[in-house]
Amino acid sequence: MSGIVSYGSYIPRFRIKPEEIARVWGEDAENIKNGIYVLSKSVPAPDEDVATISVEAARNALKRCNVEPENVGAIFIGSESHPYAVKPTATIVAAAIGVGFNLFSADYEFACKAGTAAMQNVKAMVDADFIKYGMAIGSDTSQGAPGDVLEYTASAGGTAMILGKTNVIAEINSTLSVTSDTPDFWRREGQPYPSHGERFTGEPAYFRHVVSASKEMMERQGTTPKDYKYAVFHQPNGKFPTRAAKLLGFSEEQYKDGLLTPFIGNTYSASMMTGLSAILDLANPGDRILAVSFGSGAGSDAFDITVTDHIENLERKAAPTIKEMISRVKWLDYGMYAKFKRKIIVGDDIE
Amino acid sequence: MILNKAYIIGAGETKYGELWEKSLRELAVEAGLKAVENAGIFSKEIEVLYGSNSLAGTINGQENIGSLISDFSGIAENNIPAIRIEASTASGGAAVRQAYLAVKSGEYDVVMVGGVEKMTDIYGSEIIDLTSSVLDREWEAFLGATPAALAAMSARKYMKDFNVPREALSMMSVNDHLNASRNPHAQYRNKITLEQAVNATPVAEPLNLMDCSPVSDGAAAVIVASEKYVKKNGIEGVEILSSAASQDYLAVHSRKSIYRLDSTVLAAREALGKAKLKLDNISFSEIHDSYSIYGLMELEDLGFAEKGKAKDLVYEEIKLNGRIPVNPSGGLKAKGNPFGATGVGQFVEAYTQLKGKAGERQVKSPEHALLHNMGGTGSTSVVHILGGVA
Amino acid sequence: MGELSRFWRESEHRYRLIGTKCGNCSVTYFPPRDICPKCHRESIGKMKPVQLQGKGEIISYTIVHDAPPRFIRQRPYFMALIKLDEGPTITGQIVDCDADEVDIGKRVRTVFRKVAEEGKSGIIEYGYKFVVDQ
Q1: Is residue A204 within 8 Å of A184, Cβ to Cβ?
Q2: Which chain C residues in 18-57 lie under 8 Å from chain B, judged by CB atoms?
Q3: What is the value of ipTM here, to two decimals?
Q4: Which residues in chain A have their CB less than 8 angstroms from residue C69's CB?
């Protein structure tokens, strides 16, 4: 059965606290933190973008396994902050990790589930014997509009999954998707910041799709929550995924290891995948995982995963774990954050 | 085969500084006219013109510098060969070297060298990127290195390995400014204290504003003539006793040592050897202190001190009335550093000094001068020894 | 109008630290060379591409305050001379660090970062920078 052969993540070192953002916009930090449960979010350095983050994640995935770059037959990258609107990030990552000229590649967009959509496509190519190994990356340096509630959560990070049929460390027993035309969160072409439907993003969007995709998966697999060691969901803040988990019948014990947003914010296309990465850092053979992403617009991708014995052969220590990357921090004030994120524009011919 | 001797028979330069009113060509012409007048010759006697310039292509959008200078000096219809010599900041020394070789070969009797740079035609920090073209563009400048950054990295390692205090670097600049206060052509004529030099604004740590030569406009010209010409016309020239040039790897990261300028070591050794002189015979030197650290490194690499020991020279010995006067003109820090003119300007200073015409900054009874002009971070060095008045 | 082919030509060397090894004397060079400065003509046709690991030691460093326009957001930034384990010394930025984390002798490794952009509409130029090994 095909599945995950290796995984790797990258989270930038810089962080900003909600208190700093609230200070500038005249809001009550405590109220905000209680509402969204985010203690800090990651900020990309001025010289980081989705391409650089994806390369680091991809290199970390390759460090852990024995897959040679020449045998990676596909790279698909999902993001909502690709450096180019036209010219795939996948081509840059391909050059940086040294894969061959014979390569399937493209960039994906489906808000926060672009990375998991890439995973499904790569799995399909593996299953159809188009490729031996393929790489799916979810990576973002999402922008939150200054003064908007999303500014507290929009962060940066990336996770790469190498999928294949041989040397699988976690089998993907099944994957399914649900899709509907739901305008909960969107960005028009040319606009610098996304728009969202505030409370509309909850019930009709996130919860409808995440909960129904999860239920559908468990029905198809004939499972209930107690069959899973871990459950990880798309995590736009620290509250939505815990509520979804509880609604479905999962315990804190099952979802806590995959819940990263309180520390690093919402990494958008990397959100669920990085939570899954954190779980794989700890997982043992036989552990079953329910992993469900959500992309605004809207849709959910669900994965039913079982960790194999082979995970013991993976050199997980060869790359930084999520815990290590979460603890390596440098704090920023709002001014420095705004400079890094290019919310402060410099003169015309300077940059 | 007997080779000709070569003499400097005239020299002239503009002021160095931010010369807003003067264009690239106007500066070249001004220096050229002064040199011709000083030599007491007619322009039609000039047989070859070597132009010296580093960055006119990018800063001023102008190449073909030899033709430009010849044309606007009014000698286009003399139809003489007019070529630009470029060796980044060593262009001036390299151009005079070409004139020396042309005269020594016997092919020519009177050769003019005109060095010019008009750096203030670019405003803002863009100049830093343009001057970075003297580095390895792909593997130094592209990645963020600037000439100051590379000098700073040499400085940090040098200061650590040899226990050299920050003050020793600053003394190069203090000395330059003191001498420049007596040079009417200098860009900066203010004296500076050691404290001011130590505490100036950081540029690339540990180097600060007082460690770095400025952005300058300026031009300098010399006339080089053969012994035959000098004798025939009864002129008192200053002999160019020897000329040497040497080259090293382009990038600092390729060098054998990041604080030894092998090109300087070799060129100095060769120049002194050919002139059959020792450093003891040198009355003063003009050295290429584009950064204070290079001043110290050059004192060592020219042979005045062992590696790491130049700090013992910079307080007293290099003064105008010291044992080994350095940069009586004010050097690159205070006289200025218009890239293509700098090396030629060293000859103007040496000629003026050796003829006893340096006024307030006159070195006492000078006999021989050592001129050191360097390209980039040390990839090229040109050393000349000038002799007593003929 | 921005630049394009000059950058593209070196992108593989910069992205993956591809240098050359002299087939005659086995010395590794980065950046890549067509001729070995030690072996001269005996190295012609024998310079083979080799990928360097990107690990090394700080020989010296500086903090750049006077920067060209394109580095304005990173000012002041660290530049360093790094001696790579394979032998060559190269020049690069050290990123994500404070002054007290950098010193002569510290171990570093390469990371993939944005180096420059050809303005708002031109290409993005990526390359190698360094981080201090924790």
Answers
A1: yes
A2: 31
A3: 0.95
A4: 349-351
